[in-house]
Amino acid sequence: MTNNNDDNDNGNRDRRGHKGGEVAANKTTSAASIAKMLKGIDFPANKDNLVNHASQNKGQTDDSDDVIDTIDQLPDKEYKSMADVEHEVGQIE
User: Would the pTM of this model clear 0.90, i.e. be above it?
Assistant: First the structure.
């Protein structure tokens, strides 16, 4: 039996086939940073409301530009709560 290194790390992959840490490394913004920049926003809010509010709070986190870019990638819809926003952020790949 040959031992191929590409096949050896299957135990280190999640159910979607990603190596450990790969998904987290691709996400540049944290839920905490998003929540901090959207602090005080009134829900329901649409994507434009979210982007505008985050832009007004620019500088609140070290990754403000990344947070705004992430929010700008969200679908155009009405968000009912911070949990709704965080759910959609989790869908961005």
Answer: no
